[in-house]
Design a protein that fits this description.
The complex is a heterodimer of chains A (about 550) and B (about 425). With about 550 residues, chain A is α/β, with parallel strands linked by helices. Chain A has 17 helices and 26 strands. Chain B has 3 domains: about 180 residues, FAD/NAD(P)-binding domain, CATH 3.50.50; about 80 residues, Alpha-Beta Plaits; about 160 residues, FAD/NAD(P)-binding domain. In chain B, a hairpin with a 5-residue loop joins strand 20 and strand 21. Classes of the chains: A alpha/beta (about 550), B alpha/beta (about 425). Bound molecules: flavin-adenine dinucleotide (2 copies) and iron/sulfur cluster (5 copies).
Chain lengths: ~550, ~425
């Protein structure tokens, strides 16, 4: 079939028409030397994106049997999809259409009409040269598995499991310890309005146990995972018996591996021996849960307790966000236990980011606790040397010290990140796909991060993040619906690839793997997003990204730069 | 058919937009109601977002575009929800769409109509820092990029005279002076309230001099001053249009004693403002006056440390209610209690008050229409003692974003995605 290119110049009302000479553009295009023996249809339209304009374009494509289409109009950001959708209604493959931006790139920025017109002609010419080198591409449809693997059985993982599981969607929940609950299970009490720890947790655990769409594996870790959104092949292993593995299939993975508390002995300003009366807040919560009381190692009640905020904060480089809250809670619990215990809170900043926190702070303040704002503190045994906000150096001796230590990524975070191909933020926690607008997704499609694994969070936020990941999965992996991967992806030409594996490192999505048998690298098209990073890295020039091949780009650039 | 699968979303900030796109992806029909003539919420007032100083337009404009082009999402701008009847699974909603007098499809956003309009009005969207015409878009780059007419002030529509200048200027016949308010009825299974926040009126706080001294600004006013599409096109000049400030004080926690909560974002917005000022005016002296610093994200402290090291001096004030701002010989005098509880002061050209976030104006009315509970601060209350829920007191109605309380963009988005999960679970039951 011989080529017949349709070129449609949009006036965009006065936007384009008043700043470039539309008539001249059409005349000059019709006279192009290199298109003498090609059939061209060149027309203008007042407003191609309007309902009437789209109908016009559709009829033009059909009636003229166009083989290629160029729309010279506004930014592809505005209307590329509009025209692609028009093509989809016709026989013309949408990848044989090209948009040229003569509004933002000519009309709106070049004051001289003649100059704007000649640039527009050159750019449209470039688009015509390019479109002839474009290839038709077909969208593929892949079956997808709606089931979900959740790693970590703390409050975040449990909430995700309960939100996701249904008759159309199985959930596999793996937990490395022998029981569900995570850190929250150690808490004596929750913050006001959060309910009672035991009720919250027991309810979740029993809901999980009675839910036949959730399968729990305790003492279990991830062994390996390959695949992509909709199709992950997973192997999990029993930690007591590493040879005992189970294979699972799932469409998405939720990482809920939680946090640890920093080890204070690693800090220079703390000179503490093992038997000193110095505890981290979680140890106190556990003590309260077990004994119902705070007692020293000798079994006696302390006469004075100091709670110290922000321990390790400077070292880790972030605020742990919940420790001010839970230290207030612990101070209150001590006063509830016995009002005669002298309680001092040494804090640097009172961070109370939730709307009801301040009310709680006022309530705790009313219990006769001494709040001292400090700049620095050094602990030796149960003696605190500190500088207060007024720069006075002071000393405090107490019977017991409770420290609010930084929350840090849990052990194994780095290794699991590598296995799942998800990035870590410089703080060590996993990194969001986009901090602001895609906060529970990661750089690997189909893998989500929630709770303490995401960064320091309280229980409420952990649960919201869990539901957020579920929401994402509900809308990305609909049972029975096929998934359509990106078509403008990279491919490696077998004949040229030397197997050097340079490209494996540059791909941020982990889309390239090395085929040992053939000795070459291969792009997994379901994962590749067509970013093109690999193309530039290949020393033998054997990678190309569809729709952005070298000849296509060359044709366009050559004419644009003439 | 008594059960509806469709969703009503009220408010088109980051929270409302994220939920709209997610529902659409899942094949649900969405009605997105926005009271203003443009979508995007407060984020589009920001030039850059902390902590990475991402260009806000680059973050949000693609989302706005996608929403406007999405066949499953019916965007109703200049609209308010008037009545809601029925129950979860089957709400009958009446929406009033205010006449804008410009056809959304026919208008190209060419901007030929506003220069000819003789009426000058204050532009509230620009925090009253500039004017607009009776036919206007609130800012350059507004989406949808279609003007509306203020019917009370338009000479033609209020009957003052036969003006019609804009109609004559429009080459597309897009302006229709006979347009009427429209009553739209939809049937939905669930409702998401994502009405965001507004800012506390600081002129009610004594001694801060807002409204009295032209050098005193609110945080949102400053956001518009530093926006490239704002009233000064990003040029940093004071209200007289000429003076470039050489010293600036940014005051934290303004109004916190009135609201009784921490507004969650203002330590970061104040750091952002210092960062921006320092880069724009490297010679200027910048102070942040604070009592406590709240940095609730793993990425925030680094940004703050950087601002503290390079852009601004941080001054501790012992009691935020003791601050006093006055004018002396052309300078603003900011008096405060220092770290020794002693009186101290600094003199500056400009003060930025980081004022508290409060529930969106009109929330009270909406609360009555929807029949949901508010907390004592006026934000939408989630069900007490159902930890982690975004359900309101009324079944089928959910809340996300700053409508629930002050928070940053990512936490607004997270809550919105969580609401989608809860609503999908409800509708698919
Ligand atoms: C002292 C203290 C008091 C607190 N008090 C409160 C409070 O009152 N209110 C509040 O809202 N928040 C409070 N918090 C915060 C709360 O503990 C966290 O928000 C919550 O525990 C986070 O839950 P999570 O599920 O993300 O993580 P975790 O609770 O840490 O659970 C993670 C789970 O994953 C498992 N796991 C880890 N790695 C793997 C792996 N590789 N494979 C399989 N499983 C794995 C772990 O064994 C664990 O069970 C407090 C925190 C502390 C330290
Ligand atoms: C000065 C300042 C700077 C900030 N900078 C940053 C930053 O850099 N980074 C960051 O992460 N966060 C920042 N924030 C916070 C950020 O603005 C919010 O997190 C975000 O806007 C919340 O989005 P939302 O959708 O909940 O609400 P909003 O953005 O407020 O959107 C709500 C929408 O609902 C509409 N609406 C209200 N009432 C009704 C009604 N009754 N009917 C119909 N529609 C209604 C409103 O018109 C609006 O369009 C800043 C806040 C302030 C005050
Ligand atoms: S939450 Fe409070 S104690 Fe914890 S790091 Fe932040 S300021 Fe320090
Ligand atoms: S960089 Fe090129 S040659 Fe090397 S493995 Fe990748 S495709 Fe093959
Ligand atoms: S008709 Fe109204 S809006 Fe139009 S130009 Fe006249 S006053 Fe302005
Ligand atoms: S002149 Fe007409 S088309 Fe142009 S912005 Fe005004 S109403 Fe829209
Ligand atoms: S975020 Fe900072 S400035 Fe804002 S109220 Fe809280 S402590 Fe004050």
């Amino acid at each position: 079939m011989s080529e017949k290119i349709g070129i449609y110049v949009c006036e965009c009302g006065p936007n384009i028409a008043s700043k470039v000479d539309i008539e001249k553009i059409m005349q000059e295009l019709a006279k192009l030397e290199d298109y003498k023996d090609k059939e061209l249809v060149i027309k203008n339209h007042k407003l191609l994106c309007s309902v009437e304009g789209k109908k016009f374009l559709e009829d033009e494509i059909n009636e003229n049997n166009l083989t290629h289409l160029v729309c010279a109009a506004c930014s592809p950001r505005d209307h590329d999809t509009t025209f692609i959708n028009v093509c989809k209604k016709t026989k013309l493959n949408p990848y044989l259409y090209q948009m040229v931006n003569i509004r933002e790139q000519c009309a709106w920025i070049i004051p001289d009409k003649e100059e704007a017109t000649s640039k527009a002609i050159r750019m449209i010419h470039a688009g015509m040269d390019r479109v002839l080198y474009q290839q038709p591409l077909e969208e593929k449809q892949l079956d997808s598995n709606p089931d979900v693997l959740i790693i970590g059985g703390g409050i975040a993982g449990m909430e995700a499991a309960l939100t996701l599981a249904s008759k159309d969607r199985a959930v596999y929940l793996i937990e490395k310890t022998e029981k569900l609950g995570g850190k929250s299970a150690k808490l004596k009490e929750l913050l006001p309005r959060q309910g009672v720890t035991l009720n919250v947790l027991h309810q979740k655990i029993s809901d999980i146990q009675s839910n036949r769409f959730i399968k729990v594996f305790t003492n279990t870790e991830l062994d390996s995972i390959v695949g992509f959104l909709g199709n992950f092949e997973i192997v999990i292993k029993d930690m007591n018996d590493p040879d005992n593995t189970t294979e699972l299939l799932a469409g998405a993975v939720v990482v809920a591996t939680g946090f640890d508390l920093m080890d204070v002995s690693s800090l220079d300003s703390y000179n503490i021996k093992n038997d000193d009366e110095v505890y981290n807040a979680l140890e106190i919560e556990e003590m309260l849960s077990l004994n119902g009381k705070i007692l020293m190692r000798n079994g006696k009640e302390p006469a004075s307790v100091a709670l110290i905020h922000c321990i390790g904060r400077q070292k880790v480089g972030y605020c742990s966000k919940v420790c001010c809250d839970y230290l207030l809670k612990i101070a209150k619990l001590i006063k509830d236990q016995s009002p005669k215990i002298e309680v001092t809170e040494l804090y640097k900043h009172m961070c109370l980011p939730n709307k009801h926190d301040e009310e709680f702070y006022e309530q705790v303040k009313g219990k006769g606790i001494d709040f001292i704002k400090i700049k620095n503190a050094e602990i030796t045994g149960t003696t605190i040397n500190f500088t207060d906000i007024a720069d006075a150096k002071k000393k405090l001796d107490v019977d017991m010290i409770i420290v609010g230590t930084a929350m840090i990524p849990t052990v194994g975070t780095a290794e699991l990140g590598v296995e799942l191909n998800i990035d870590q933020h410089e703080t060590g926690f996993y990194q969001e796909a986009h901090l602001k607008i895609n906060p529970v997704s990661t750089n690997t499609d189909g893998v989500f991060v929630i709770g303490g694994a995401h960064g320091p969070v309280g229980i409420t936020e952990s649960m919201l993040q869990a539901q957020a990941a579920a929401g994402k999965i509900f809308t990305q992996l609909i049972p029975g619906q096929k998934i359509i991967p990106e078509v403008k992806v990279s491919e490696i030409l077998e004949a040229y690839c030397t197997g050097c594996q340079t490209c494996l490192d540059v791909c941020g999505y982990g889309a390239i793997y090395f085929d040992e048998d053939k000795g070459i690298s291969i792009v997994n098209e379901a994962i590749c997003r067509g970013c093109g990073n690999c193309v530039g890295s290949c020393p033998s020039g054997s990678i190309r990204t569809r729709h952005f091949t070298n000849p296509q780009l060359y044709q366009e650039v050559k004419e644009a730069l003439r | 058919m008594d059960h509806s699968d469709n969703v009503l979303i009220i408010g088109s900030g980051v929270a409302g937009m994220e939920a709209s796109l997610m529902f659409s992806k899942a094949g649900k029909k969405v009605t997105l109601v926005e009271k203003l003539s443009l979508i995007g919420g407060k984020t589009i007032k920001n030039e850059e977002t902390f902590p990475n100083m991402d260009c806000s337009t680059c973050l949000v404009a693609p989302i706005q575009q996608e929403i406007l082009q999405d066949g499953n999402i019916n965007v109703l701008t200049s609209s308010l929800v008037e009545a809601v009847k029925g129950e979860a699974g089957n709400f009958k909603v009446t929406i009033n769409k205010k006449a804008g007098y410009v056809d959304l499809v026919a208008c190209l956003g060419c901007g030929m109509c506003y220069p000819v309009c003789p009426v000058e009005l204050i532009n509230e969207w620009e925090e009253n820092l500039t004017n607009k015409k009776a036919i206007y878009v609130p800012c350059a780059g507004a989406l949808p990029n279609v003007p509306v007419i203020n019917a009370e002030k338009c000479l033609q529509l209020n009957g003052t005279e036969t003006c019609n200048k804009c109609v004559e200027a429009c080459m597309f016949g897009a302006i229709n002076m006979t347009e009427k308010d429209e009553q739209i009825k939809v049937n939905v299974g669930a409702i998401l309230v994502a009405t965001g926040y507004d800012m506390l009126d600081v002129s009610t706080i004594k001694n801060l001099g807002y409204g009295k001294y032209p050098g005193v600004y609110t945080a949102m006013e400053f956001e518009r001053l530093f926006a490239a599409n704002g009233p000064t096109e990003g040029e940093l000049v004071l209200r007289d249009g000429k003076k470039v400030p050489s010293s600036i004080a940014i005051v934290h926690c303004v109004g916190r004693s009135q609201t009784h909560y921490c507004s969650n974002v203002c330590c970061m917005t104040s750091s952002k403002h210092a960062h921006f000022l320092h880069h724009k005016l490297p010679e200027a002296k910048i102070y942040n006056i604070y009592s406590d610093i709240c940095l609730p994200d793993k990425t925030y402290q680094k940004f703050y440390e950087d601002v503290k090291a390079h852009s601004s001096e941080f001054i501790y004030q012992a009691d935020r209610d003791k601050m006093k701002i006055s004018e002396e010989k052309g300078k603003l005098k900011v008096e405060y209690l220092d770290n020794n509880n002693k009186d101290a002061f600094i003199q500056v050209d400009m003060v930025i008050l980081a004022n508290a976030l409060i529930s969106a104006l009109g929330s009270e009315e909406l609360k009555e229409v929807l029949g949901i509970d508010h907390d004592k601060f006026g934000f939408v209350e989630t069900q007490p003692f159902r930890i982690g829920s975004v359900a309101t007191s009324k079944p089928g109605i959910f809340v996300a974003g700053c409508a629930e309380g002050p928070k940053d963009i990512q936490n607004s988005v997270i809550q919105s995605e969580a609401a989608v999960a809860q609503i999908m679970s409800l509708l698919n039951r």
